[in-house]
Structure formats: structure tokens, C-alpha cells
Amino acid sequence: MRVEQIIFYALAAMVLGSALLVVTIRNLVRSIFLFFVALISLSGLYIFASADFIAIAQIVIYVGGVLVLMLFAFLLSNKELLNNLSRPVNRLINISSLPGFLLASAFLFVLISAILNTEISWLGYVQQNHFQPGDNTVHNIGISIMTRYLLPFEAVSMFLMMALIGAAHLARKGQKI
Amino acid sequence: MIPVTHFMIISAILFCIGLYAAISKRNAIMVLIGIEFMINAAILNFVAFGAYDKEVNGGQIVALFAIVLAAAGVAVALAIILNVYKYYKTIDPDKIHNLRD
Closest-CA residue in chain A for B22? Predict the structure, then answer.
């Protein structure tokens, strides 16, 4: 097993382990921080798919923007949730979350069996067109955004502006909704 | 080279963790984190297949747009959660059961 594979599976174990801890841990602030451990390890997995720019964008947007936003909203809205954190309910799955657990594991079974029964390598484009390590993907992505994907890019930028104005309007102080 | 099936299996497990969190958590922020896990599982699939698209970079650009849209969604959802907390004094989705007229 080469070093590349060892790093890949270590990152995958970090993603899945911290995601599992996010949904099972009792302390909510700690689970938000573990959420970001999962996202940073996930950006490491993007690098293994030759997507350097996406990995950097993931780190900048999620850790720079979403972490601060989530902690902000969490600490503003959760006084009584912070108080009843100390209830000693330490079972892994309590009875109210049993339907969700059953549904998620059934869906996982369906997905895994579908993936394992598919021969991905029969697809024609999987054998060709592969990125080599050392290809300059950022240059290529910039040219693609400005030529082929210009209309979706403009639509996304308009949508982002509308969403941010709407969020600022919704979170305004001293105003009935 | 990592086979693309392994990316898909990791993405499937991450999606199901997010589905579990979105269904069974009793805190709107944890539900939002579950939705973020599901979006990130989809982005991981896009990126994993985008490694085979050298000419037009379809997968990577869709992944970039999806990251931006997820960030916008988080901003709006957190603003709505803060308003719901101001009105109901709780963010438990089970306890919010009347619409405001």
C-alpha cells in the first residue's frame, strides 16, 4: 500500500469518524467544531480527485464563512439548550431517533449495494481524459467559467446577492417579520 | 490512483449520516448540519467524477457552484432560525407547530 493510499484512507476515516461523532455527541458546541473537522478532511479528499481549487474554496467558504455564522447563530439562540445539556442520557440511540436510524441504514444499504453492483470502469470516459498529477487545473477552470459556464456563473452570482440581502433583511433587529 | 468506487462509498456513508441527523435531531441547527453533510456528499461525488473530465471541467465547476449555493442557503437558514427563536423561544422543530397569520 502506497503512501498516497494510506493518506487517503486516513482522511476518509477522519471524515466518517468525525461525522459520526457530530451526530452522536451530546455537547452541541463540540459537535459544531467536529463538523468543521469533517469538512476540512473532506477538502483533503477533494485534492485526491485532482480538484485543488475546489479544496481551497471549500476551506475558505466553509471554515471562513459558515463556521463563524453557525457559531454565531448557535450562541445567540440556545440558552435553554445549553442548560439542559447536562441531562445524563448516554445511550447511543434513544427510542425517538430509532425511525431515523432505521431509515438511514436502509438507505445506506440500498446505496452501497447499488454502488458495488455497478461497474464504473465500463464507462468510456473513465478510461481516458484523466488528470495527471501536476496538471494546472486552476487555469483550466478559469477559462471554463468565463467561456462555457458564463451564464450559470452570472445566475449564481445574482442568486448569492439576493440570498445575502434576504438574510440581512430577515436578521434585522427591532422589526416585525 | 484511488478508484472512484471508494469515493462513492465514502459519499454514500456521509449522505446517510446526514440523513440521520436531518431526520432525528431535535435542534434546528443540527438539522442544518445534516443537510450540509448531504450537500457535501453530493459535492464529493461531483468532484470524484470530475477527475475524469479534463477538457470542460464539468464536475469541478458544478461542485464550485454547489458550495456557493450551500453557503447562501446556510446564511438564509440561520437568519430564519434566529427569527423562529425570537418568536417561539425554542428551535426544536417538534415544538413549532403553528403558522403565524
Answer: A100
